[in-house]
Specification:
With about 120 residues, this protein is an all-beta fold. The protein contains no helices and eleven strands. The protein has strands at about 5, 10, 20-25, 35-40, 45-50, 60, 70-75, 80-85, 90-100, 105-110, 115. Strands 2, 4, 5, 6, 9, 10 and 11 form a seven-stranded mixed sheet that branches. The radius of gyration is 13 Å and the shape is globular. The N and C termini lie far apart (about 40 Å). The mean pLDDT is about 95.
């Protein structure tokens, strides 16, 4: 079965850190761009970050730039999102997705992992 599974969400205080993981089963992540999304006001989901398949280029939303880092672990068929200096407004369900490119049509979605930033 082809699927993406997120993990690593939880409750953290403002200023804290979490590392989300997106693991694939049934296919290899190497050939896909992997993005992280979260719901946003007025949108179904907003793109938080993406890493390309071709040259490893990374992209970040302005709201997370300098705080979040996306990376690949090809040996584990996993993509991570390191989230530092978390703010209450980062609270959301985070979804990972696999696509042919960072602006391409999504082929696979994960089920989501909850991140809550609160004191």
């Amino acid at each position: 079965q082809l699927q993406l599974v997120e993990s690593g969400g939880g409750l953290v205080q403002p200023g804290g850190s979490l590392r989300l993981s997106c693991a694939a089963s049934g296919f290899t992540l190497d050939y896909y761009a992997i993005g992280w999304f979260r719901p946003a006001p007025g949108k179904e989901r907003e793109g938080v970050s993406c890493i390309s398949s071709s040259d490893g280029s990374t992209y970040y939303a302005d709201s997370v730039k300098g705080r979040f880092t996306i990376s690949r672990d090809n040996a584990k068929n996993t993509v991570h999102l390191q989230m530092n200096s978390l703010k209450p407004e980062d609270t959301a369900v985070y979804y990972c997705a696999a696509a042919k490119g960072c602006s391409g049509y999504v082929d696979y979605w994960g089920q989501g992992t909850q991140v809550t930033v609160s004191s």
